[in-house]
Write a structure and sequence with these properties.
Helices cover 29% and strands 26% of the residues. By secondary structure, it is an alpha+beta fold.
Length: 700
């Protein structure tokens, strides 16, 4: 398996020339990097005007590995070839690194670049990427991979100190400015010119002293980083300021997942804080986190959860009897939510409102929690990505174990766990009664193990003693009902009057609406049984619009037109139903393309994970058929050589089945706004989780 690394962009608040002067000091060897034993120049070339300098070095690396493994491999040191291309006029340095040792067994590639900051020419940007592919290594492939990744991560962390160290050394020597390189070619001779330095007592290094070939085997990071902002998502200081301290490999996972989202979701993409939660929930396993996140984003979009806080109005009954609310913050700056579960009539709320309203209430609490985390991050000046929940169980009894109520609770927990991972920083359970172990036995299997570790349970008045509530919440904001001095305006709950109860028929008619009441519909596509949707157009120039997500497999999307109405096939009355019976086929097998029906748009291949939006202006009235067809690897091979991704996908997909979620609408031409092109692959957004916005459709 290929291991990859992608660094954030690190910004030095120093000019390019000064960074180069600090950087070159680490050659031919650097005592700050013990594993970097030595280096020698094997070739060097320079342009006539001295602008471009290309240097190749052979570097000797001492990898910390078990002695036995080194003896088996038959080497003590590893050798790498590094090609450095310095352009003094453009103020860029590009570095390419590959391994010389074991090049037939292991492929190592690294690319680094130093460039001028696009918005401030007095600053320098550094970026780095690398890949490791161990094809074979004497039967120790897994061990060698772990050692290599550990060593590389260590060198990245060490590299952050190197430039900083040498910048300090230069400052001690009085070097705080180096003029930019300029040249004038006159009559075949090269004349060197330096820009005049600003008034200063500090001496400057002659520019040609830094021509001695520059190299980036270390993963040098900034000595002084530019202050990040939410708009500069790749800046290293932004990551530390808004997301927290991440290891280099964790930073890489975040950046790579974010890049994948940008490529496949070309509209709005989730904010980095939200992406990071899913990575943490899967221990930074990129593939698992990507699958987990995509499922959640599809769920959010399908049920329009992003608009919940703006569109859903809490029923008055919830405002009166739901005994929970936000209350200041804990000692770590996390938003604090208090739930007086023991005072809440869960049975009455379920009977009067139904499971649907309670679920929306819990989702709105989580959405509000996301907003409060962002606000507290700005207020306290440090990353805050989760909240604290205080649950008071005083008054909990067997009434709370009512089976429909438990069923609703379990379903709510399941949905929250699937879509709001790593949002609970700490759960304080106070005044737990004897019945609590029964409730815990029912709900704990649905709670993630990492989340369960955040639970603190106090029986009786134990929360008032040492190690209790005051360790996590400032004394002045402890609510009055917990013997504190702070008045808390959270509703006290109480029994819901029975005359507000709704009938079983009324509740059943609304049951599970959050899962089914959606403007989007789901469909499955099977090999040999496409999914077809019929749209009747009575007026030419009407506009058919569509928006669909491919959640599993690859599909081909087509639009056909026919003047004759398709006949739905009869349902099978005996025998095993075929796939065609699962998806009724509107295009009759006897129809001839070009005579009975015609293709009005070029077919579009849609890959798994894509969200496709588009529109088609109808030229004639009649019947339009939107068709999604299973895309096999053979279909791809018919037009070109199979891609590596296609081969891998064919090995992983266990059934000939694809899934889509779609929405269509027909508009009069006068009501349509936007692009008049169709079959445009462009990805929809997620408003509350989005950091950036782009156009929803793009003209081709």
């Amino acid at each position: 398996m290929v291991q990859e690394y992608q660094s954030p962009v690190r910004v030095y608040k120093h000019p390019f020339e000064l960074i180069m002067a600090a950087y070159v000091r680490r050659f031919p060897k650097c005592p700050l990097i013990p594993m970097f034993v030595d280096s020698e120049i094997i070739s060097e070339s320079q342009s006539d005007d001295g602008c471009v300098l290309v240097t190749e070095r052979r570097c000797t690396i001492d990898i910390e590995a078990p002695r036995l493994l080194k003896r088996i491999a038959g080497v003590d040191y590893l050798y790498f070839i590094q090609k450095n291309s310095l352009n003094r006029r453009d103020r860029t340095l590009h570095i390419e690194v590959h391994n010389e040792t074991f090049s037939n067994r292991v492929i190592v590639r690294e690319r680094c670049s130093y460039t001028v900051h696009p918005e401030n020419e007095g600053w320098t940007c550094f970026e780095q990427s690398a890949s490791l592919d161990i094809k074979s290594f004497f039967g120790f492939e897994s061990t060698a991979e772990k050692i290599a990744m550990k060593q590389y991560a260590s060198s990245i962390k060490k590299g952050k100190e190197i430039i900083e160290y040498y910048l300090r050394e230069l400052e001690k020597e009085g070097v705080t400015y180096i003029p930019r390189w300029t040249s004038t070619v006159d009559s075949g001779t090269v004349t060197w010119r330096h820009q005049l330095p600003p008034p200063s007592a500090a001496r400057a290094i002659p520019v040609n002293s830094a021509k001695d070939g520059l190299h980036c085997k270390d993963s040098s990071c900034s000595a002084e980083l530019v202050t990040g902002s939410p708009d500069d998502k790749l800046d290293a200081d932004y990551i530390r300021r808004y997301l927290g301290d991440l290891t280099p490999l964790q930073e890489s996972c975040l950046i790579r997942l974010r890049q994948w989202l940008q490529e496949t979701h070309k509209g709005k993409i989730p904010k980095d804080q939200h992406v990071l939660r899913f990575l943490r929930a899967r221990d930074f396993n990129l593939d698992k986190a990507r699958e987990f996140l995509c499922q959640s984003l599809t769920w959010r979009r399908q049920h329009q959860v992003d608009f919940l806080l703006d569109t859903w109005k809490r029923p008055q009954l919830l405002q009166d009897y739901y005994s929970g609310g936000w209350h200041h913050h804990d000692k770590d700056g996390r938003p604090l939510y208090i739930l007086r579960l023991g005072q809440m009539d869960t049975k009455g709320l379920v009977r009067a409102l139904g499971e649907e309203a309670l679920l929306r209430q819990v989702l709105s609490i989580n959405e509000e929690g996301l907003r409060r985390c962002e606000e507290n991050t700005r207020v306290f000046g440090r990353p805050i990505s989760s909240w604290t929940c205080l649950v008071d169980l005083d008054g909990l009894n067997m009434r709370h174990l009512w089976r429909p109520g438990i069923k609703a609770l379990l379903r709510i927990i399941e949905i929250v766990e699937a879509n709001y991972p790593e949002t609970l920083g700490r759960l304080l359970i106070l005044r737990a009664p004897r019945v609590f172990p029964v409730l815990w036995t029912l709900v704990s299997p649905l709670i993630d193990e990492n989340t369960r570790k955040k639970f603190l349970v106090y029986a009786g008045n134990d929360y008032q003693g040492p190690g209790g509530l005051v360790d996590y919440i400032d004394r002045e904001i402890i609510p009055d009902f917990l013997q504190g001095d702070c008045m808390c305006d959270i509703p006290e709950g109480g029994m819901v009057p029975k005359f507000l109860y709704r009938t079983a028929e009324e509740l059943e008619s609304e049951e599970n609406r959050l899962l089914t009441d959606s403007i989007y519909k789901s469909a499955s596509i099977y090999k040999g049984a496409p999914y077809e949707l019929l749209i009747e157009i009575t007026e030419a120039s009407s506009v058919i619009t569509w928006d669909f997500d491919v959640s599993k497999g690859d599909v081909v999307f087509n639009i056909y037109h026919s003047r004759r109405a398709p006949q739905l096939p009869r349902k099978e009355t005996h025998g095993i139903a075929s796939l065609g019976a699962v998806n009724p086929q509107l295009i009759d097998k006897s129809w001839v393309l070009g005579q009975d029906y015609s293709m009005v748009e070029k077919a579009l291949m849609c890959r798994e994970g894509e969200s496709v939006q588009g529109s088609h202006i109808t030229r004639w009235p009649g019947f339009y058929i939107l068709q999604w067809r299973f895309l096999s690897s053979a279909a791809c091979a018919a037009s070109s050589m199979p891609r590596v991704d296609d081969v891998l996908a064919s090995l992983q997909v266990s059934s000939h089945k694809c899934k889509i979620m779609y929405y269509t609408e027909v508009l009069a031409s006068c009501d349509f706004r936007g692009s008049m092109t169709s079959l445009e692959s462009c990805h929809s957004g997620f408003s509350q989780l989005s950091g950036t916005t782009t156009s929803s459709t793009i003209s081709r």
